[in-house]
Amino acid sequence: MIDTIEETPGDARAVAAGRILCGGPPVWPGGEEMGFLQAWPGHRRLAGLRLQSLADLGASRALIAEAAATVLPAPAFDAEARDFSRDFSRDFSRYFVSAVFPGHPELGEAPWAADFALGELYSYGRVMLPAILANFEGDSDMPVANLLRPACRLYFHSEEDTEPLDQALAEFPAKGDELWPAMARHIARRSTKADRTLLDNLAREPENRKPPLQWGLQYIVRGDVVLDDGTVVTLDELAHEVGMAPLEYIEHMPEHIEIDWEESD
Length: 265
Fold this sequence. Notes:
Elements: H1 12-18, H2 43-56, H3 61-71, H4 79-86, H5 93-100, H6 113-121, H7 129-135, H8 143-156, H9 163-171, H10 179-187, H11 193-204, H12 213-221, E1 225-226, E2 232-233, H13 235-241
Antiparallel strand pairs: 1-2
Helix pairs in contact: 2-3, 5-6, 7-8, 8-9, 8-10, 10-11
């Protein structure tokens, strides 16, 4: 699969394999509206990225199903976990892979183990897009970017004035997809029931949009995984196999972790 990764994807399989590139530049593919789906809130998108990373390295269907038991459950951020995340700085490779495959500690020595672990460690771009949009100054030539910027600012600073978002919504092109205003309001924690229904339906049924947006909804948002032989495996199938409920298609925006950079041990 790794040889199908392209900077500018031309088909569904290229989107499936290449979405992991958002670990570097958070907007992937760049220059495409589809790239802003990387700001979609929730664990489903991140779980799909991690499992696709394994598939891109040639992991078998059986190994991906086993990894799903660890990857699909959303992490629970209690007080202790949040404190730990602030100070996260640990050796990663062998122990990370063993944690993903607890029944197979020998996989920590697999040829692809270091690539997978390091890819996960350095894929900080997967969660950076909202912060980058919130701090971007100036105007973009992409209406979606101009719409999501004030939405992301309100996510991080809910006390700020909503006028910039209201203005961006009013200026969004009439011919633009209604997906984007709904997503902007949801990121800003101001979505309506109709917004959430629309977003949920599009994530469940990407075929309701034409490519390339359809491909982004299927692979970036819904999280489907494509194997080396072209087989498509949905996260819902994997959840069923490991005995857990399917992940939500659209989640509420989580609380962000405030870090005191002046604090010392």
